[in-house]
Amino acid sequence: MLSIKIPLKGINEIKNILIKENLMDKNYKIKTDEYYGYIPTKTQNIEELNKKLKSKKIFKLNIEDIDFEPFRKEPRSISEGLKDKLTNEEIKDLKTSFDIIGDLTLVEIPAKLEKHKLTIGKVVLDFTKTKSVFMKKSEIKGITRTREIELISGEDNSKTIHKEHGIKLALDIKNVYFSPRLATERKRVEEEVNEGELILDMFTGVGPYPILIAKNKNVEIWGVDINKIAIDYLKENININKLKGIIHPINNDINEVEFKELKFNRVIMNLPQTAYNFLDLAFSLIEYNGVIHYYEIANSYESIINRIDKIAIKHDKKVEILNKRKVKSTSPCMWHIGIDLKIK
């Protein structure tokens, strides 16, 4: 294609003039050698080009026909990347939100679009610049809180190190539960913790709450989970982060752990599907004026607060609702809701 050949020292000046006159072809990269620069130009009319350049007191630059390297146009969204590969209706049906966990991406693809999973995976891989793209094959299930996943693009490695708010979390998305969407929620809880607290995380997973809190506060935390692999990762995360506080990893059912006479200043209950089954236990382990961070999937605050009030009456305690919030949407009309309550 046509190019304007100029000495290297004049390349920026001429480039700016060509851009202003809309004569430079921005789809291609400027080429240089030891002495000259070559700027791709749109026009095929050399006389017109020289006429415009003459008006800028630049006349009869050398015109050469050479090959240029095109700029790679990155899609601005996954939908844009798929526009020539799927129909508009199929793109509309695809959930284009995704989770990036470390250098892995986790996507959800409707059953009717699974025939396009490899195409979708490649576009997501190019867009996110991660190492691997996995597709969700099931909901979170079982006491270990894991889901089935399938590799649809990139490296076949589900282990990664995720970073958030200055901490590192080693994990394997095939064998443990982790949601990057709760990063803001975890930071919010950490900021409420006071130095010297005794804290219980009843369903700790790989330890995102304890690691973040102990990174910034001199506290003592008991992190409990029934998933042995999750606790093994918690132990690893204790080692790879520089912590101010102390964390005690415990691999057990929280119902089976004996704390003797120990009472906690703060209890974290992030198991929104079934945490209500453990409210009795939390009330028995929290000290007076202690705080419980309770999470549940529900369509309103009222049903959760009513449940909490009934448990409080059973334990001859009163509660003060410090905060209530919708952490994230889980399905139409249903929310992952967080309630902070103080035991009075």
Q: What's the average pLDDT?
A: 89
Taken as a percent bin, the fraction of beta residues is 25-35%
* Count of DSSP-assigned helices: 10
Structure summary, number of beta strands: 17
**What series of H and E elements makes up the topology?**
EHEEHEHHEEHEEEEHEHEHEEHEHEE
CA gyration radius, whole angstroms = 29 Å
Main β sheet profile: 7 strands, mixed
The best one-word shape is elongated
Low-confidence parts lasting 5 or more residues at pLDDT below 50? none
Structural class: alpha/beta
* CATH topology type of the largest domain: Rossmann fold
The CATH homologous superfamily of the largest domain is called Vaccinia Virus protein VP39
* CATH class category name of the largest domain: Alpha Beta
Terminus-to-terminus distance: 78 Å
**What is the helical fraction, as a range of percent?**
25-40%
Count of folded domains: 3
Enumerate the strands of the largest sheet in spatial order, edge to edge or round the barrel. Answer: 13-12-11-14-15-17-16
Q: Which architecture of the largest domain would the CATH scheme give at its second level? A: 3-Layer(aba) Sandwich
Instruction: Please give the oligomerization state of what you see.
Output: single chain
Task: Please explain how this structure is put together.
The protein is of the alpha/beta class. It has three domains: 2-65, 2-Layer Sandwich (Alpha-Beta Plaits); 78-157, Met-10+ protein-like domains (GMP Synthetase, Chain A, domain 3, 2-Layer Sandwich), CATH 3.30.300.110; 164-343, Vaccinia Virus protein VP39 (Rossmann fold). It is 28% helix and 31% strand. The chain has helices at residues 11-20, 46-55, 78-81, 88-93, 117-128, 183-192, 208-216, 228-240, 279-285, 301-314, and strands spanning 2-7, 31-32, 36-40, 62-65, 98-101, 104-107, 132-136, 149-154, 159-164, 167-172, 198-201, 220-225, 246-251, 264-269, 286-298, 319-331, 334-343. β16 and β17 form a beta hairpin.
